[in-house]
Amino acid sequence: xxxxxxxxxxxxxxxxxxxxxxxxxxxxxxxxxxxxxxxxxxxxxxxxxxxxxxxxxxxxxxxxxxxxxxxxxxxxxxxxxxxxxxxxxxxxxxxxxxxxxxxxxxxxxxxxxxxxxxxxxxxxxxxxxxxxxxxxxxxxxxxxxxxxxxxxxxxxxxxxxxxxxxxxxxxxxxxxxxxxxxxxxxx
Length: 187
Known about the structure:
The chain is mainly beta. 10% of the residues lie in helices and 35% in strands.
């Protein structure tokens, strides 16, 4: 464990591998002594260790205590950067996961972290955090995709009569054969 010093990576770029959990890294914290906090990120929990006024403390929280994986734009001394953070209601517990100047990389990491941690994806707008996609519980709600047969490059290879055929229906006049040993006669 490091005591003090610079956070992992430079102040402009932070890259963590979402598929290498558990991860232990240092991040900047303006309120703690030495301006550094140690973070352990597991699939089901997060441990934040920092020192306040000479007293060491460790916060062990379940991953469900966080609201989601958020995408934020950060303006700094080197220009604008995009950050992927583990968002919490308490601004002091927001944890950085990825920081870069490339928006495309940040978008890919945002979706990957959301999938790995199983948390909703959030974006920051003028009113706070919101989900960019409509969801019903844990399922993303979207428009149904068109049938594959109609818009496929292989459409001309398939017979279209299969799309027009309707399944058969049983009616009262349909013959029912009961008590017979064989329906098909063999000669």
